[in-house]
Amino acid sequence: MLGVNIGIDLGTTSIVVFVEGKGIVMSEPCVAAYEKESGKLVAVGKRAWDMIGKNPDSLRVVRPMAHGVVSDFTATKHILRYFLSKLCKNMVFKPNVVVCVPSMATSLEKRTILDLVTSAGAAKACLIEEPLAAALGAGLKSNRPVGAMIVDIGGGTTDIAVITMGCISVSRSVKVAGNALDEAIVRQIRRERDVIIGEKTGEFIKKQIGCSYLREVELGLTVKGKHFITGMPVSIEVSSTEAYLAMRQHLETISEAVRSVLELTPPELSADISDSGIRLTGGGALLRGIDEMIEKKTGVKTIVADDPLNCVALGTGEALSHMDILSQNGYVFKARDEIGGLDLDSTE
Known about the structure:
- By secondary structure, the chain is α+β, with helices and mostly antiparallel strands.
- The protein contains eleven helices and 19 strands.
- Helix content is 37%, strand content 27%.
């Protein structure tokens, strides 16, 4: 194929871009900012992310992906077009793009993403499931008849899959992941402490003192917000126990989903997984103790991948190197006129 080959991890919270021969060249928040009256695009990526919670009334900040799928067509197209044009501005031919989707995405959602990518500037586009890309990025060889289990805990979804011979044998996707954990912390502090904090502060608490179990030595963190009743700015100390109690129900949901996939896995593949273990990827894999929690719940050794944040994007690079294997399992590039889906040009 003519043109450079690009892999995109189009996630709920961030977009990571892999260019064949160069590696990961871009990692930015999946956010766009617009002027309310004119609808003009003002900022994309990190610049737009910095505006969340601090934007004036004249600006509208949009997070166009929800639970791994498109919720705002126009904003998603603008973000993709901005990054693709930034990467390919001096290239003669349009790029060929591999994009990741949740394992349980519907046919309509898949066609929508294909249409968006091709209308944003790609010559041809190909979709690959996130857990398969994560497995490739984590170094799990997929072309052999050996079972491997991957748990990709992203921002909007947790994708769990058993991989064998270049495709997915059993999978499940739950809409509980990093963003849900942040929101749970925000709700807990509002309910128990009568203090309102922003989603960025909730994420900061999770990263600093969040844990998948009750710590023997409790940690504390001072954060700022505003009092729910008086509306005045306040500072409070949040404990690691509070953070855990806020997230506990969602963590149980994730571990139960892993169990349910293991229960549906054929016995021969289960035996392979028992030997190789479960591999964790995605930003959620960095939460302290989550590997121990899943191992305790399933009885199967659980390992966090070397670079969990970038595993999916790195996996798209591996997919580009082994498209001959993937094409045998139905992963093919499609041009815009080959996609039977929505005409999204009218959304601009």
